[in-house]
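yo

u said u wanted the structure for the complex thing, so here. seqs first:
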Amino acid sequence: MSIAKENEIQNIVSEILEDYKKDRPIDKAEASTQLDEKAIVDVIQKLLRILYPGYYRRKSYSPHDDYRNLSYFIEVIVFNLSQQVSSVLSRMPEFAEVDEPVIQREAQRLVFEFLHRIPKLRDYVNSDLEAAFDGDPAAKSMEEIVLAYPGLLAITIYRIAHELYTLRIPLIPRMMTEYAHSRTGVDIHPGADIGRYFFIDHATGVVVGETSVIGDHVKLYQGVTIGALSTRGGQKLKGKKRHPTIEDNVTIYSGASILGGETVIGHDSVIGGNSFITQSIKPGTRVSVKNLELQLDESLHETVQSKDLSPEGWIYTI
Amino acid sequence: MSIAKENEIQNIVSEILEDYKKDRPIDKAEASTQLDEKAIVDVIQKLLRILYPGYYRRKSYSPHDDYRNLSYFIEVIVFNLSQQVSSVLSRMPEFAEVDEPVIQREAQRLVFEFLHRIPKLRDYVNSDLEAAFDGDPAAKSMEEIVLAYPGLLAITIYRIAHELYTLRIPLIPRMMTEYAHSRTGVDIHPGADIGRYFFIDHATGVVVGETSVIGDHVKLYQGVTIGALSTRGGQKLKGKKRHPTIEDNVTIYSGASILGGETVIGHDSVIGGNSFITQSIKPGTRVSVKNLELQLDESLHETVQSKDLSPEGWIYTI
Amino acid sequence: MSIAKENEIQNIVSEILEDYKKDRPIDKAEASTQLDEKAIVDVIQKLLRILYPGYYRRKSYSPHDDYRNLSYFIEVIVFNLSQQVSSVLSRMPEFAEVDEPVIQREAQRLVFEFLHRIPKLRDYVNSDLEAAFDGDPAAKSMEEIVLAYPGLLAITIYRIAHELYTLRIPLIPRMMTEYAHSRTGVDIHPGADIGRYFFIDHATGVVVGETSVIGDHVKLYQGVTIGALSTRGGQKLKGKKRHPTIEDNVTIYSGASILGGETVIGHDSVIGGNSFITQSIKPGTRVSVKNLELQLDESLHETVQSKDLSPEGWIYTI
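structre next:
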């Protein structure tokens, strides 16, 4: 490397090191308890194989290997997940004075507690799988749903994360649902409370907030928000129920927003696409957008043929 | 490992193995015909290089290698894709009694049939590339579009998947479009029938349903749904035309939803953003949202300065 | 391989090679200056570690390694990014006659110029991190935001890309923001001009156009479009201000669209969800959708219980 280049690099490094000393949140540098995102994704992958024993397998797999494979997966999960849980526990104020081996034992206890819940988890996930097949005429087989439906993937990862969340493990559940968000466009907070037979079709853009309560047999389409009315209160709103309650057998079509912690959508209701709802809806109600009239301008016919529309020529009446 | 820990793991494994015996869809365990998602993604990657010979190359590539490279790519695709097609065919009822070598020959025949269609495929994809460049003033070069436009990527993978779909190969086309969905946020069902010069700008959140018919020179923006009116009929609706027809030269702006199997958007129409359309529209019509009035509350000026809005203080009139 | 199979492959290769000769945009084959997407992603990853020194580290990291690590990262970035910048410069018309070493020196000069801006970049990114924490009651810690908020990731990558864009480096900034788009569903054009304390909650589906101007303390929710009114003019509109100006302290709720180069949203305004705005709004205004009335059909109660709704039975009034 030329001396000029080396000097430039050294200057840049010095500028950045100087900048690190400003003690802002971004300058945080304690690294000993860093979480390992790859380890968490690996835990998710192994859990998916455990949940769906016949779908996510390698070709070389033989059904006779069930016992051996499961033992191996569980061992790896116990090791990796305990380590990550240990890491997040050790930075909580209530564990500040606690010895490392005690924290590790507590982490392992939580992981075992979680693993004992797998049969319950599979029961929920099986209901979601059935809901997806029953609800979509484009679905050709159960296998297609497991292998190609992002909605089911997002729900399954949410269900895993939710169990860890109810065990009061911080941060890791959120990293899991964000992994799902990144892969599927579905953002379900692990704190949400969601019943059986839950289905999200087409998936992209769905948001379900932290304090949402959703019953059984609920079906959402792409772009649906189950959200808060306003978060201008910021951190002062922490812990309050800020998101709606959706009762059993409700269908919510694409692009609809249901907002507010006191909003309840009664059971057996159907919410039309693009609806915007901030008040409670009685059971058995069909809601659709009414006054969204369209302006039809049929004189356009020639103009588009003869010349480009200038931006000014294009009017949206509001 | 401590004995206590080993016992716990063994208990968990036993609980899960017991749970596998319940014979629900989730318990499905036949593994011999599993599809290999990585092999399918590899086929897509190689096809992208074949379709766009100058764009997806490694630095070390020399144009003189065209023949050798192509032969290699085609050989690998024939091998991998035939294997996957064999695997999906062998589980179809009509092949239940057929010998493995016969299925393999049929799979290879379909793959060759598909590969002979590459020039036709490139003709369509070239028209999509031109549509993207002509349609977006932010596009600086063709290369930018190939390398950085998720809309073109999603359309190209759809075009590959659609050819396999018309050859009646199950499941694999859906896995391909879901790979595109995951990378781009665009969910085009491989069954959709889409003309030349198709462009999707910004891409995220677009959904095009299985029985949609779309003409030439159609342009969609982010968040557009070409969908079904209701899928409450579930699996009973299978095979029916449930999605709209969009004729030539139609532009559909962001967030618009066009729904229903009998809805036809006439040629040369322009559909404004956030429109919600469930009826047919005559050719040459410009549609925009009309009665979506806004409530302006200018007294807010001081309040936002002096105090936070409580969630109750924030009103959406519906 | 059987001779029949080998012949088929040779035929297919010949058909494709023949097709490559048609000289359409898709047939472009000059490969010597290809960009390396993996190298660009690696540059982003290293920059994220430099920007957030305490968050993206490996477990094995020790804070005492700061100097050595930084030097290493900077050296790798100088090498890889200069190579990519060289590659894009060399195909610009103004460099057509320029010698390779001159282009390489210019590329390296631009990369050093960029790296000197890292402290300024960290100042902006720190303000974004604070905005995210202050603005979201669901956020439990700064660390959760860095590790699990796609909005912050998208903004950070945009900020990197924007610096390269202002240095007039073509294509690479767009590849960077598209990498962010693919991971987060947020599509911010590197040309947009965005102030400090910028926050995007839930992220998916946000689009911010090339000529947008956004002030300080602006907060967006999922599905917001800051877009152009019409791009029917296509390449003829290149360079014009086509996207809105959003002044300081504006909050824009989910699904809202703000369109047009002359549209200005005055400071301290609040734009309600699903709004559709193509005209300027005075400072301190609260905008919400007014006439979007809902049609409630409570007679549905029995029907959903007793029979499936046929698609015809489902009415959206428009």
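Chain C touches chain B through 94 residues (CB under 8 Å). Chain C has nine helices and 15 strands.
cya
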